[in-house]
């Protein structure tokens, strides 16, 4: 009897407990919006990486340095950019509400590299002599030979998708062909001797063989 009463009270109070947990979860979520700026001149810093420490989540500030990210109260945000020192900001737990504005100031970090001095060849003749007598490893020759194989180039041209420029050219060619034969039936390549010649050449090269 006591077990039944405990189960009954648990079922009655479970919605209130779930509602309280859901409210606590919503209260712990916060959206951080802000801007990244230099500490000395208050200049906007674009392309700053903002990561939630210990998690694989983050964002990047835009060209005006503006960013927005959703995190939990108590999380630590790491700001990093090329040429600036890394900064950590811990979101206060006692913040009220689900949104917060932040201005993150970053200090420039100067990195000194070792001096590099480039000396040219004294004369063109010495440069040509060094270029001709350059020792190239055999494996580099093998890589170059494989990269220029006709079968590999045909396979790459067949399976690699075209870029934006290539797709535009194909579309314009189709548009031009459709306008050229507007109002009439376009010719069929089955009666075209040039198309038959190309087909025979492709068949001799083995373009239609299975490449399993």
From TrEMBL:
Entry superkingdom: Bacteria
Name of a matching Pfam family: CarbopepD_reg_2
Stored SUPFAM superfamilies: Carboxypeptidase regulatory domain-like (SSF49464)
Cross-referenced InterPro entries: CarboxyPept-like_regulatory
Protein name per UniProt: Carboxypeptidase-like regulatory domain-containing protein
Species, as recorded: Chitinophaga chungangae
């Amino acid at each position: 009897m006591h077990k039944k009463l405990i189960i009954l009270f648990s079922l009655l109070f479970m919605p209130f407990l779930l509602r309280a947990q859901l409210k606590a979860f919503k209260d712990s979520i916060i959206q951080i919006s802000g801007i990244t700026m230099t500490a000395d001149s208050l200049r906007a810093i674009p392309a700053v990486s903002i990561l939630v420490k210990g998690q694989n989540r983050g964002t990047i500030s835009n060209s005006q340095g503006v960013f927005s990210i959703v995190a939990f109260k108590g999380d630590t945000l790491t700001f990093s950019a090329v040429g600036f020192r890394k900064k950590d900001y811990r979101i206060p737990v006692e913040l009220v509400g689900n949104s917060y504005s932040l201005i993150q100031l970053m200090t420039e970090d100067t990195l000194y590299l070792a001096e590099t001095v480039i000396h040219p060849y004294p004369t063109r003749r010495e440069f040509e002599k060094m270029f001709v007598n350059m020792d190239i490893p055999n494996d580099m020759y093998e890589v170059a030979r494989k990269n220029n194989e006709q079968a590999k180039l045909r396979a790459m041209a067949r399976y690699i998708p075209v870029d934006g420029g290539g797709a535009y050219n194909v579309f314009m060619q189709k548009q031009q062909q459709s306008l050229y034969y507007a109002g009439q039936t376009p010719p069929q390549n089955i009666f075209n001797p040039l198309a038959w010649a190309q087909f025979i050449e492709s068949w001799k090269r083995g373009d239609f063989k299975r490449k399993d």
